[in-house]
């Protein structure tokens, strides 16, 4: 499918009442098909909304431009986050879904973090695999208890541990309910990532006022 903001995307309708919809955001060089299986493993029956990043880096789709590895074009990050937020809003109306939980890997996790900071209402929460701080001077967001799971790799050559820790602190300071775990892994996902994400999704399933909240 292509939406009017020109995102190519896949949409899989939900098949289980109460399963939260997901916004799936792939890594550099991925596409709208990449994370469908991961989404189904983490939460069987969830609606899956999966856009393809609109920036091309040597032919590889991404969600925003970068100047070098780990050095982001922050003006572009801001613009692209808002563009993605507008896509989510229109896709929600078109497909009749609630605000989704973003499930992002690498570049997709970074744009998800930017979207949380730029337009908090677009998302009900986020699972961020191998994420970094997307903006050096983010707007003051009010995340009001939104649940966020950050899974980092101890031996990740792309995401320095201090950067992931800063992201966790940034989102917590903005009021998100953050769980940050550091796994014995590199940049790639492991079975432990999948298992932890599945358990976490199960633990945030209580709904209050139309959004997800962390349950004890
Ligand atoms: C990014 O550019 O978003 C990060 O460096 C992750 C990556 O895509 O390699």
What Rg is obtained from the alpha carbons, in whole angstroms? Answer: 15 Å
- Full CATH superfamily name: Alpha/Beta hydrolase fold, catalytic domain
Question: How would you characterize the largest beta sheet?
Answer: 7 strands, mixed
What general form does the structure show? globular
Structural description of this entry:
It is a single chain. Helix content is 31%, strand content 24%. It is an alpha/beta fold and 216 residues long. It has one domain: Alpha/Beta hydrolase fold, catalytic domain (Rossmann fold), CATH 3.40.50. The strands form four sheets. Strands 1-3-2-8-9-10-11 form a seven-stranded mixed beta sheet, sandwiched between helices. A hairpin with a 2-residue loop joins strand 12 (207-208) and strand 13 (211-212). The longest helix is centred in the middle third of the chain and has 22 residues, at 74-95. It is globular. The structure holds D-malate. Residues 27-28, 66, 69-70, 106-107, 110, 158 line the site of D-malate (MLT). D-malate binds next to helix 3.
């Amino acid at each position: 499918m292509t939406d009017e903001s020109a995102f190519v995307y896949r949409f899989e309708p939900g098949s289980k009442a109460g399963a939260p919809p997901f916004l799936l955001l792939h890594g550099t060089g991925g596409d709208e098909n990449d994370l469908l299986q991961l989404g189904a493993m983490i939460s069987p029956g969830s609606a899956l909304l999966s856009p393809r990043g609109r920036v091309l880096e040597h032919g590889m789709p991404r969600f925003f431009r970068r100047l070098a590895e780990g050095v982001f074009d922050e003006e572009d990050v801001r613009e692209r986050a808002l563009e993605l937020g507008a896509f989510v809003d229109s896709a929600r109306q078109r497909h009749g879904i609630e605000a989704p939980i973003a499930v992002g890997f690498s570049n997709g996790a970074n744009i998800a973090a930017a979207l949380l900071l730029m337009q908090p209402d677009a998302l009900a929460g986020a699972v961020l695999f191998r994420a970094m701080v997307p903006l050096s001077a983010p707007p003051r967001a009010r995340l009001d208890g939104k649940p966020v799971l950050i899974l980092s790799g101890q031996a990740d050559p792309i995401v320095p541990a201090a950067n992931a820790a800063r992201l966790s602190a940034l989102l917590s300071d903005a009021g998100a309910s953050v769980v940050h775990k550091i796994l014995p892994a590199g940049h790639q996902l492991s079975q432990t990532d999948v298992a932890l994400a599945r358990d976490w999704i199960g633990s945030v399933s209580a709904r209050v006022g139309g959004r997800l909240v962390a349950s004890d």
